[in-house]
Amino acid sequence: MRIPGRRSAASKWARFALKTGLLLTDAKLWSSINEQLKDHLEDAGDAVRHGYETTTDRIDDARAALRGESHWPSHALSFAGGIVLGVGLGLLLAPSPGEETRALLRNRANDFRDRVSDVTGADFRSGQATGTHGD
Question: Rounded CA gap, 78 and 85, in Å?
Answer without folding.
Answer: 10
